[in-house]
Write a structure and sequence with these properties.
alpha/beta; 2 domains; binds zinc ion; 8 strands; Rossmann fold; 9 helices
Length: 249
């Protein structure tokens, strides 16, 4: 991640703080993508949010690397949890950039990654229809980020799933009934208590098998609360999925 990249926030799309164009060696990318990147570099001074290669948004090698992740199944809260990628290396970098600064092109790639994890869950459940239920985002965080990250990811993933033959519907029925402290700033032992009782379901339960989606599952405290709130409202929650999950070793 490039330091001093404050320009992205002002214009909402890309970094402008490092106009170091013209001094980088073209390598590893080719054809029109190079031309587009060089033009972007020349005009905008942009760079890849993952590796800082000059260009517009994610560069091709980084996008290919992110998409190379193979999803796997974990189990949390009594349901299969589809994990799209490790919370490490470029996947961690991409998630942090997308959450904090809305990296151009990041959501497109991450939505596809998440869809692969959701497809794995659908296969595990033998489900041909899915209700995709994103965890809710606090208003303050929404205002800071400019996007509802889990909702946006889920929406993009649902689109991919439909193209792949899974009838996925976005069902954002979970709401916050109080705003918990930021989980990432709390020690693991305090996270469950921080989020317990913070969510509720609004509206009728969806008819499809519901799968709860969060961008990152570490201790699983937020996911556990989402599952609790769904079950309390009679939502048939049968799975979960996340974009990133830390793995040991
Ligand atoms: Zn890159």
């Amino acid at each position: 991640m490039g330091e001093g990249a404050a320009g992205r926030d002002e214009i909402g799309l890309w970094k402008t703080a490092r106009p170091a164009w013209g001094v980088h060696i073209i390598s590893g990318v080719s054809g029109y993508a190079v031309l587009a990147d060089r033009l972007a570099e020349l005009v905008l001074g942009g760079e890849c949010a993952c590796c800082n290669r000059p260009g517009l948004g994610l560069c091709q090698p980084c996008a290919a690397k992110l998409l190379s992740s193979r999803p796997w199944l974990d189990y949390r809260g009594g349901v299969p949890l589809g994990c799209a990628s490790r919370y490490a290396g470029p996947w961690r970098q991409a998630l942090l950039v997308a959450k904090e600064r809305h990296g151009l092109g990041m959501l497109r790639v991450q939505g596809r990654l998440l869809a692969k994890a959701l497809r794995l869950v659908a296969e595990q459940l033998g489900a041909e229809t899915l209700a995709i239920v994103p965890v809710p985002t606090a208003k303050a965080r929404l205002a800071k980020r400019g996007i509802d990250y889990p909702l946006d990811l889920s929406s993009r993933a649902a689109g991919h799933l439909r193209r792949w033959g899974v009838a996925a519907r976005l069902r954002p029925g979970l709401r916050l009934c109080r705003t918990p402290a930021d989980q990432s700033e709390l020690p693991a032992a305090q996270r469950a208590a921080n989020v317990r009782g913070s969510m509720t379901w609004r509206g009728p339960p969806p008819p499809e098998a519901a799968v709860v989606v969060d961008d990152l599952v570490t201790t699983g405290a937020t996911l556990a609360e989402a599952l609790r709130a769904c079950r309390a409202a009679g939502v048939a929650v049968r799975g979960a999925a996340c974009l990133a999950r830390p793995v040991r070793g």
